[in-house]
Amino acid sequence: MVDTLDIKIINKLKSNSRQSFVDIGKQISLSPSSVRERIQKLEDNGVIKGYDIKVDNGKLGYGLEVFVLLKLFSGKLKSFMTVKETFPEIIEAHRITGPYNIHMKVMLKDQLHLQNFIDKLIYYGDPTTHLILSEV
Question: Does CATH number 1.10.10.10 belong to domain 4-44?
Answer without folding.
Answer: yes
